[in-house]
C-alpha cells in the first residue's frame, strides 16, 4: 500500500467527493447486520470444517518420542524405547515410515506416564503433585480490558496442565465463546452453558424463601418455566468432552450474555440471593470438584455478573495484561473496581450478619497474580521492569513473550501445544514453547504451594476421616 498519492499528496488530501460517493453503497439498516452475521457464519463454518474428522470433531495431533521424552515424561529416549520394547502391552506408537520416529496419542502418553510412575524411579516426577484429600482448585483468568491475552493464557494453561497429567475442566464464561471454539465445543443455546446453574441457584433460593412466605401466610413468588427447567439441570449435563482426553468443557455462546440481564432481575426479586456464590455452590453440590484437579474459568472483558461469579468461585485469580501504558493503567482500574465490588458485597452481607448476630464473611483468594503477556523485549523492557518494581510479587515473575506461533496456528489448531513442531522454524518453536512452559511453571508453583499449605494444615488438624483400611 502506498502512503502517498501520485501527485505527492498524502492520501487523505486527494479524495474526490463524487468518487467517494460512487464507492459508498446504500445506508445500512438493522437487517444488514443479519446479512453480515450470516456471511461471517458461512465463512466460519467453511473454515471450521476444513481438516475436521468425519462427524465434525476436532482431533488432537500425535506426540513424538522426542517430544515425550523432552517435555512430558522425563526419561532418556533410549531408556524409553527399551522399556517399550520389553513391555509389548504398553502403547508402542505408530510411525509414518518403516523404522521412522514413533508417534503416540495423548491418551497413550497418559498411559505410559502411569506406567513410568508405578515402575520408574521414585525420585522422578512422572505424575504431578496433588494431595489426595484436598479439593480441585478453581482458577479464573480475568481483566476487564479486552484483548490482553486472557483466553490465550487460559487455554495454554489448561493444555499444559493436561500435558503435565492433571485432569482439567474448562468453563467458558464469555459469550464470545472463544474458549469453546478452541476446545471444539458444541453449544446451541444458553441451556448448554452455565446459565441453568445460575438459574438453579436462584430457583433453590426462591424455593427456600417461598417456604418462609407460606409459613408467614404470604403469597409465594411463582417459579416460572425457566426456573423449573433449571432445577432439573445438573452440572454433569453441561460438561462435554473435548479432543483432549483429559480436558472437559462447559461451553458458552452468544445467548449466555442474557444472564447479564436476567441476574439483576432475579436479584431485585430475591434481595438476599447470594448471586456471587451461584457457580461455586452449584459446582460443589454436583460434586464436580471431585472429578478434576484444576478448573479454569475464562471470563469476558467486563466486570459483569458472570465475571463476578467466576472471580468469587476462584481460588487463584490471574490477571493478564500487556506491558503497555494503557493496559497497565486499565488493569489498575480493574483492581479498583474489584475492590469496590467485593467490598460492597461484604458490607451488605455483614450488615445483615451483624444484625442477626452471625459470623461476618470476607472473600479470600489463595493467590492473586497479574501476569505480563505478549512481551516484546526489544520495546517493552523498561515498562515491564517498572511494572515489576511497582507490583513486586503480585506480578508473576515470568513475562510471557510475544510469539508468532499463536497467530500462525490454523483454524483447527489452537496455540502452541496443539501445533506440530515440524510446521515451524525450530528456533521459533522452541522460544514460543519455552515462554508458555515458563508461564505454566510459574502458575504450577502457585498451585503446588497452595495445595501443600492445605495439606500441612490438614495434617496439623489430624486426619479428616478414619482410613477405611485401618
Ligand atoms: N503470547 C502471545 N504472543 C502473540 N500473540 C498473542 C499472545 N497472547 C495472545 N496473543 C494474541 O492477542 C490477541 C488477544 O488475545 P486473547 O484473545 O487471548 O485476549 P483476551 O483477553 O481473551 O481477549 P477478549 O478480551 O476479547 O476476551 C489474540 O489475537 C491472540 O492470538
Ligand atoms: Mg477472551
Key features of this structure:
single chain, 470 residues, alpha/beta, seven-stranded mixed β-sheet, three-stranded antiparallel β-sheet, 17 helices, 10 strands, globular, binds adenosine-5'-triphosphate, binds magnesium ion
Explain what you see:
The protein has 17 helices and 10 strands. Helix 8 packs across helix 9 and helix 12 packs across helix 13. It is an alpha/beta fold. It is 48% helix and 9% strand. The model has no long low-confidence stretch (mean pLDDT 90). It has a 7-stranded mixed β-sheet with strand order 6-7-5-8-4-9-10, with helices on both faces. Strands 1-3-2 form a 3-stranded antiparallel β-sheet. The longest helix has 35 residues. It binds adenosine-5'-triphosphate and magnesium ion. Adenosine-5'-triphosphate (ATP) binds next to helix 6 and helix 16.
- Which strand order does the major sheet show? 6-7-5-8-4-9-10
- Assign an overall shape: globular
* Class computed from helices, strands and strand pairing: alpha/beta
Reported for the largest beta sheet, the result is: 7 strands, mixed
H/E series? HHEHHEEHEHEHHHHEEHHEHEHEHHH
**Uncertain runs with pLDDT below 50, 5 residues or more?**
none
Mean residue pLDDT: 90
Integer-rounded radius of gyration: 26 Å
Tell me the fraction of residues in β-strands, as a range. Answer: 5-15%
User: What is the number of E strands?
Assistant: 10
Distance between the termini: 77 Å
Bound chemical compounds: adenosine-5'-triphosphate, magnesium ion
Proportion of residues in helical segments = 40-55%
Q: Note the total helix count.
A: 17
